[in-house]
Design goal:
2 domains; elongated
Length: 414
């Protein structure tokens, strides 16, 4: 491109003496592109953070792979642990007992999912110890009937450390009065907070030996939980173990247990991308109207340039430069704003919540109570490049129209 094409194109972007309205429209187009790009980056970063946060919190309590018997219990679990650990992808294995019950304290009753664990082994397959608010997981000792519950469950029951609560299980016992549920008193020895309401309000941990007695499993367990080197390989490892284990067992991985949740989040991310991309597209194509007005306003200028020897290609380049400048400035500002907000959303959101006296994420609805953010470089590059391509595309028709103006027709009434 020649220097005069850049000079004229940049000069047309602003109006110094007349028709300031066109410059105002150019500014609005820049702002629209910038806000659209920033919104797209921020929303996708929040969706990425939301997905990662849920995955980490779920796997802080859940396991990468579970092995369980096709019967009532897994009686040969030591052999299962030994055999699964031979797989190079498996780094730890821990048995568990799972059952349902109701926790009662005073006039309060809450349903709960009760998991019997070996504290020393459980710490190898999950990160529950890092989520303890009071007490320790090691406080669970066989025969002492201690219990560790979530903070929301404790709040619903109105209990604290050291209080004794009654666990009611559906495994009944025959009495002269008929079938009655089993009741056992437990002492609260720990409180945890994973940050997901689903777990904090309904999950309780007891020692595995106590759970075996309570649920009448003898020496058996419900299953074995596995931790892998790479959790993203869980489906492949589960299939591999299913074909190599020498005993009958069922295997599930975390992607199967929470498949609907993660599919919903992924679909929401795609839908939000399309919706916000349309905002960027609308702002980008505002450039068409801006350049059409400029071409109409500058017809005499174009005619003079043509009589001085400017080619149709040069005229077209002038208006492509003008439209591209709007797109580049808008995209650059939008990317910068989006990146800054996405990286500091943990500070910005609490300020907004405090200012407007509201809470954006209710933990009962969204599983988590804080707005997470994870900025992906590929997302930023994709959004930036797409925005620039759209703005360049929007300049083609008005630029072509300007290049087709005939000098004699434009200057006839001047």
């Amino acid at each position: 491109m020649n220097r005069y094409e850049w000079t004229v194109g940049l000069r047309y972007t602003r109006a110094k003496r007349r028709n300031h309205f066109i410059s105002f429209i150019s500014l609005i187009s820049m702002a629209g592109i910038g806000l659209g790009v920033a919104a797209l980056i921020i929303v996708l970063s929040v969706m990425n953070g939301f997905q990662q946060e849920m995955r980490e919190r779920i796997l802080g309590v859940a396991s990468h792979v579970q092995v369980f018997s096709d019967g009532e219990s897994l009686s040969n679990w030591p052999a299962v642990v030994s055999e699964t650990l031979r797989n190079p992808e498996v780094v730890a294995a821990a048995p568990y007992v799972l059952g349902q019950g109701m926790l009662s304290y005073g006039d309060h009753v809450q349903g709960s999912l009760v998991r019997g664990i070996l504290p020393t082994e459980e710490d190898k397959v999950a990160d529950l110890a890092t989520h303890m608010k009071e007490g320790r997981l090691d406080n669970l000792k066989s025969g002492e009937f201690g219990i560790v519950i979530g903070v929301d469950l404790a709040r619903a029951l109105g209990v604290g450390m050291g209080d004794r609560i009654v666990l009611i299980t559906p495994q009944g016992q025959v009495t002269p009065a008929g079938m009655l549920p089993r009741l056992k008193q437990f002492r609260v020895v720990g409180l945890f907070k994973v940050g997901m309401y689903e777990y904090d309000s309904s999950l309780a941990f007891i020692h595995m030996k106590d759970a075996q007695v309570l649920f009448r499993l003898g020496d058996g367990v419900t299953g074995v939980r596995l931790k892998l080197k790479d959790m993203m390989k869980a489906p492949a490892v589960a299939r591999q173990l299913a074909s190599t284990l020498t005993f009958g067992a069922w295997l599930t991985d975390w992607t199967q247990e929470h498949a609907n949740l993660f599919k919903a989040v992924a679909m929401e991310k795609r839908v939000m991308f399309v919706i916000l991309f349309l905002i960027v597209a609308v702002a980008a194509f505002n450039i068409v109207s801006t350049l059409v007005m400029v071409v109409t306003d500058k017809q005499s200028d174009i005619a003079i340039l043509r009589t001085l020897g400017a080619t149709q290609g040069s005229i077209m380049k002038i208006f492509i430069i003008q439209g591209s400048l709007i797109g580049v400035v808008g995209t650059t500002v939008g990317v910068a704003l989006g990146v800054v907000v996405a990286l500091n959303i943990d500070v910005i959101v609490p300020l907004l919540e405090h200012a407007f006296h509201t809470h954006f994420l209710e933990p009962q609805v969204y599983f988590i109570s804080e707005l997470p953010s994870k900025l992906e470089r590929t997302d930023v590059l994709t959004i930036g490049i797409t925005s620039l391509c759209l703005t360049l595309l929007a300049t083609l028709y008005p630029s072509y129209r300007a290049s087709r103006i005939e000098p004699a027709e434009a200057l006839r009434y001047e």
